[in-house]
Amino acid sequence: MMIEPGRARGLVVVLLLFALCPSVRSEGEAEEKKGTFIRVASTSSIVVRRFNREYFFDLLGVRPVMSLEPTDTLEKEARQYLASLLQDRSVLLEQEEGREGRSGPRTFAGYVYLEDGTCLNEDILRRGFGTVDAQVPFSRLETFRSLETEARTQQRGFWKNRGAPFDPREGTTCTDGSIAYAGVCGVSSPEIIPDSKVVPDYPGRARRKKIEGRVVLMSIVSKDGSVRVVQTLKSPDDQLSEAAIAAVEQWRYRPALKDGEAVDVYFTIVVDFLLTRGGLQ
After folding, report:
1. Among 37, 123, 228, 268, which is least packed by CB within 10 angstroms?
2. How far apart are CA 221 and CA 264, in angstroms?
3. How many CA atoms lie within 13 A of 155 on its CB side?
4. Lowest-confidence range among 27-41, 58-72, 127-141, 161-175?
């Protein structure tokens, strides 16, 4: 039986749609938040491959380990642990309910799970390879704080042979006379307003030379939520420092509180510059 040319073209289109629809559903739904581990970006961020592209998964509620001491091997130990744990593994990102979960270009934030159900965010805190980051509110804050307390009590990671995690304020009192320190002496930490979090420009020279790494800034977050950087504590490159400062000073925070009142505080801010085929994190 002969099929008219017009009907034949229509039949081909229908068959193509049936062939394509299952794969579209798979990519858009079942596979949307899955990926294969590629490398550790920091102890609170990993790089994964999804659909032949690389993406960052930021671990919500986890502040990465930091050290200014070259002899301090904690960060190296944490990276090695994560690389060993995740090597050739698939991961799943669960976004915080009610939040978009995307914190930058090709960057997602949430809870990272292994196939056996292990929550990477919780595992890092339990082992003392990170501390709770409450800058952005999230539903598991109290659980995360209890895991941090457990690590501190058992002297794991940060607290092994230490009285406290790295803190450039170590040895100081609650204030310097006029400005408080966030997170101590009954002072809360400021919380970033997500819409204000400008992504730093990646300097062209640093990108060409494949310079990446972490910039750690000591800042003052004012009671009106504005930010002023007072010191660069750690940086792999001066241009990365300048780019981080230019962005951070545009950020806005919900201010720290003391006895229910907004106060000016010293606050450490971390900016990671990480290279991928698409550029900055």
Report:
1. 228
2. 6
3. 4
4. 161-175
Q: What is the largest CA-CA distance in the chain?
A: 94
Beta bridge partners of 64: 130
Spell out the residues 6+ positions from residue 154 whose beta carbon is closer than 8 angstroms to its own: 128
Residue 187: closest CA among 166, 200, 199, 172: 172
Instruction: Determine the topology of domain 26-165 in CATH.
Output: OB fold (Dihydrolipoamide Acetyltransferase, E2P) (2.40.50)
Going from N- to C-terminal start, the domains of the chain cover 26-165, 167-281
Say yes or no: domain 167-281 is CATH 3.30.2420.10. yes
Residue with tokens 């940086």: 235
Residue showing tokens 């799970």: 113
- pLDDT tens digits, 187-238: 888 999 988 998 899 998 888 888 888 888 889 999 999 999 878 888 888 8
CB 234 within 8 A of CB 66: yes
Asked if 74 and 42 count as a contact pair (C-beta separation under 8 A), the reply is: no
Instruction: Give, in order, the Cα–Cα distances in Å from 231 to each of 193, 217, 221, 234, 268.
Output: 22, 6, 13, 9, 10
